[in-house]
Specification:
Blueprint lengths: L1 H14 L11 E10 L3 E13 L4 E16 L4 E19 L2 E18 L4 E20 L2 E8 L13 E9 L1
Antiparallel strand pairs: 1-2, 1-8, 2-3, 3-4, 4-5, 5-6, 6-7, 7-8
Length: 172
């Protein structure tokens, strides 16, 4: 799967006329930041570094950390998931304000379930693959997107439904 992605990115680079010269003014820095508090807690930090190969293509890599905790069954149980991951991405801008994105990712998950009345706890660890595909709009440095994890792993930090995301990207 990763080989197909890299071949696709190489093809796009050739089609859009990428030059072999690296220029620091084409570097981008950005990512995403997410927080939700209420019935459950979610905190996500996802910095990324990329390169503008042309006006139509940006690709790069990043790290992500996600913390999720929830109390359920009348606060009898508490589940905590932590994910630490690495991703590569490719973003295609067929029009100045339209973005199409692919992002394969691997996350290390640490999960604990605690039965609160007795303090009994179970723990598990697992490597979780994700493959995000998405589309959206670019407004200045911000991206507003809908995305979906086509890998459909039951322990994915992205769940098994379409979700929205807000990201950003700044040039040097």
């Amino acid at each position: 799967m990763m080989r197909k992605i890299l071949m696709f990115i190489a093809f796009i680079c050739l089609v859009t006329g990428v030059k072999a010269q690296f220029r620091t003014d084409k570097l981008t820095f950005g990512g995403g930041l997410g927080m939700q508090f209420g019935n459950y807690t979610l905190i996500n930090i996802a910095p990324q570094v990329g390169y503008n190969f042309s006006n139509y293509l940006n690709a790069g890599a990043g790290f992500t950390f996600t913390h999720y905790s929830d109390k359920y069954d009348n606060n009898q149980w508490k589940q905590t998931n932590n994910y630490l991951g690495f991703n590569v991405y490719g973003r295609l801008y067929p029009l100045p304000y339209v973005v199409l994105s692919v992002q394969p990712e691997i996350n290390r998950m640490w999960r604990s379930n605690t039965y609160r009345p007795t303090g009994d706890k179970t723990k598990e660890e697992e490597m979780i693959p994700s493959f995000l595909v998405g589309a959206g709009v670019r407004v200045g440095p911000m991206r507003l997107m809908i995305q979906y994890d086509v890998a459909k792993n039951e322990n994915s930090p992205y769940g098994n439904k379409i979700f929205y995301s807000v990201g950003y990207s700044f040039n040097l």
